[in-house]
Amino acid sequence: MRPHRTRRLRAGVALVAAAAVVTGGATPALASPGTDRHADGNGNGHRNGNGHGHGHDRGDHDRIAQQVAALVAQLTVPEKFGLLGGTTGSNGAAGALGGVPRLGIPTLDMADGPSGVRAAEPATALPAPVALGATFSPELAAAYGGVLGQEADALGMEVLLGPMMNLVRTPYAGRNFETLSEDPLLTASLAAPQVSGIQDHGVIATAKHFAANNQELGRAGLDVLVDEKTLHETELAGFEAVVDAGIGAVMCAYNQVESVQVCQNSELLTEVLREQWGFDGFVMTDWFAIHGPEALVAGLDVEMPRPMAFPELAQDVDGDGQVTERDLSEPVAAALDRAVSGVLTAMAEVGLLDGVGEDPERAVEENAAVARQVATEGAVLLRNEQSALPLSDEALGSLAVVGPTAATPLIGGGGSARVNPDAGAVDSTVEVLEAGGADVTWATGEDLEGELVPGAVLGSGSPLELTGEAAPTGEFSEDVTVTAPEAGTYTFHLQTTGPGAEVTLGEEQVASTQNRFGALGGSLIPTADGFINDSWTVELAAGEQVAFTVSGTGTVEAPVQLRLHWTTPQLRQQRIDEAVSAAEAAHTAVVFGYNEGTEGEDRASLALPGFQDEVIAAVAAANPRTVVVLNTGDPVLMPWLDDVSAVLQMWYPGQEGAEATVDLLTGVVGPAGKLPQTYPADPARTPVSDPANYPGVDLDGDGVPDQQTYTEGTDVGYRWYAATDTDPLFAFGHGLSYTSFDYSRLRTRTGKDGVEVSFVLTNTGSRTGTEVPQVYLGAGTAAGTPTLQLAGFDRVTLEPDERQRVTIEVDERQLSVWDAEDDRWERACGVRPVLVGAASDDVRLTDSVRVR
Ligand code: BGC
């Protein structure tokens, strides 16, 4: 075991991840999010007397301040700057901060990420954060954070680069899978206990990406024009909640806000974060985010992954051969001490300054249980006609299963959030179904592998297949010309091992299996024999030629095995025919659809990629009992919706996804997740349908957006649909159950600190189930409030016929609007409708309250 810090325990807080038990769809003993926004799942609220709860009392706070001040006084100026610039980390860390051994200041190794610790060694692959969002469960968020903290600690990481808590603002954004939701209250309610769950293990959590990093297109430098009211009431809510929960680090984003790079935006980094919210940890850049030396005074503390602009400040101005305080201007000297104090305070608050101990072991089984529970409880049943789900014994005795992700699980999204699970931890859904006794015929449908492009259509006369001895061990480049034998859609597949390769068509890179963001590029779904696969599609006329170049660099230790496959129009039809035959012969068909959300790019279309829509439509035409399981990180269009019996959204379900999927399909567990993002019915009618709003305006003509305006204001997500009376495909908060719930006897009581909403919830079905009742406020006569606003929710498990009076506290913040003149929250007075129901479009009870 390597030497390690001893983590200081907070009294009463268990160090192991909260043990999770998969029950009949139940999450036991949930904290009410309305009442205790900062609950850590152990019933410990983190609010304390000083207004921002850090889990420390005043004595602790003073002791930490003294300890930090004493250390700062002993540091030389070069040592101080040394603490503010990244360096290479160990065990696959994304970066590190070197410590100061002579003063007992430890190194901080920093690992991504939001859905599992991304290290050289394997870790538990949790479901994508969007699945956690769909649980609406602060308790599961605490357990999820507990896994991240426990494993970061075990893998030698002191900083976890998560959670991501940017709001889902556009359905196109590449990282929608990696964040929690489109709603500020839901995001805040889940992020805060998650952060406590991480930090309870002595690991510093990082809130990212502060702020308004809501899309990938043009993210490096995109100028986001957004007013203060909008920022405070939407995007900033989650960040404020985690500062309140005592988060140690904040990562500033790549983009600009109001024409200033966020990493040197003093309004955000100093006024909002430190002065308004009382943040006392440190702000680090996103990796290589743009900023200049003035960023230090503006409020940036740490440059990652290496020193960039700050060394310019550490010059020997007086020429005495050393860099000392005398060489610094007063504002720089003050900012330097602030920055170093922030780093040391974050360390002290999680116990990292308290000495060296040993890493714990990963709690592999307990953590896998949490992964499974979140995957199960975050699943959303979008449609279920004639109780198609759960599958009957008859269905399980004759089941056609279609789609690549049924056989090769899609456990997570792409980019820096990708996790490397333990060998053997991930099972295929088809195998788990079969192991449970189901009689399954699998067909791929959408063909991600294709077949070797034959020599007969290639200019070279022989297939491009450089495998075995032929695998390149140095630089290589192959010009390829293909002649289409018939007209139609051709998908080419570049398949490689080792360092990978890229395909360029003219100037454009159309495929790459090389590293991106420290992660393997290409599709998230490898070939059956373990090659990384990346595809691109072209329309060709009969006899038309297409020319491209395949290039890369192998090494003797890591040769690039490479082959070029394609899916021709003929093969496409054959795959559809196979899926149809399997469906025709079976009692029930289950088709798995997928998309591949990833950092670094947005989706070009909301449709399922490839020919998946055609496959689903053909299978549904062949078998009236067709169920669709979605492995997507965000909304997709469903042109076949009316023709299928059921749709189950499993998201990217992590390493336990197959087991969770089968539990839900077979009814071992009932679904209880709710959509944390709205699913648009029409891509032309979304909150971001105006190009100035999304993707933004390309000012310099380089094809990348440079500036955008949040024209929807505070009407992010479902609020916009309500304000414009636009019907979505599936509304925010929607999610069906295998049982049914009745809502009755609504009471509202206005108090000094908010509104108490209570009602009776009854399980009127025949099986135990969990419901997420939601409380919304309408605008009513209050000025400056959204047309519809989530104001509280709970998660309640009831047995058949069981009834419970549920009480949800709508707190002061939900009744307030941001006053940009005075920089403070102010009650929005007036009569406001109170709407209680099972989804934002499924209101069962209404009342109104007078807010004074
Ligand atoms: C991402 C961050 C990530 C960092 C380090 C960046 O590209 O935006 O979310 O933490 O890389 O991997």
Please give a structural write-up.
- The chain is of the alpha/beta class and 852 residues long.
- 22% of the residues lie in helices and 24% in strands.
- It has a seven-stranded mixed beta sheet. Strands 13-27-26-25-14-15 form a six-stranded mixed beta sheet, with helices on both faces. Strands 16, 17, 19, 22 and 24 form a five-stranded antiparallel beta sheet that branches.
- It is globular.
- The protein starts with a strand and ends with a strand.
- The structure holds beta-D-glucopyranose.
- Beta-D-glucopyranose (BGC) binds next to loops.
- Beta-D-glucopyranose (BGC) binds at residues 94, 112, 161, 208, 286-287, 416, 517-518.
Q: What ligands can be seen in this structure? A: beta-D-glucopyranose
SSE-based structural type: alpha/beta
Largest beta sheet: strand ordering: 2-3-4-5-6-8-11
Number of β-strand runs: 39
Radius of gyration: 27 Å
Strand content: 15-25%
Percentage of residues assigned to helices: 10-25%
The rounded distance between the terminal residues' Cα atoms is: 60 Å
Biggest sheet, in brief? 7 strands, mixed
**Separate helix tally:** 18
* Average of the residue pLDDT scores: 92
Label this structure with key terms.
binds beta-D-glucopyranose; 18 helices; 852 residues
Question: Strands, helices and their partners?
Answer:
Layout: E1 3-5, H1 58-74, H2 77-82, E2 86-87, E3 95-97, E4 108-111, H3 129-135, H4 138-154, E5 159-160, H5 184-199, E6 204-210, E7 223-225, H6 228-233, H7 236-244, E8 249-252, E9 256-257, E10 260-261, H8 266-276, E11 282-285, H9 295-298, H10 330-349, E12 356-358, H11 364-377, E13 380-384, H12 393-396, E14 399-402, H13 404-407, H14 429-435, E15 440-443, E16 451-452, E17 465-466, E18 475-483, E19 488-496, E20 501-505, E21 508-512, E22 532-540, E23 545-553, E24 562-567, H15 569-585, E25 588-594, H16 612-622, E26 626-631, E27 646-649, H17 657-666, E28 707-709, H18 718-724, E29 741-750, E30 754-763, E31 769-771, E32 774-778, E33 788-793, E34 796-798, E35 803-811, E36 816-819, E37 824-827, E38 830-839, E39 842-851
Parallel strand pairs: 4-5, 5-6, 6-8, 7-9, 7-28, 8-11, 14-15, 14-25, 25-26, 26-27
Antiparallel strand pairs: 1-12, 2-3, 3-4, 9-10, 13-27, 16-24, 17-24, 18-23, 19-22, 19-24, 20-21, 20-23, 29-30, 30-35, 31-34, 32-33, 32-38, 36-37, 38-39
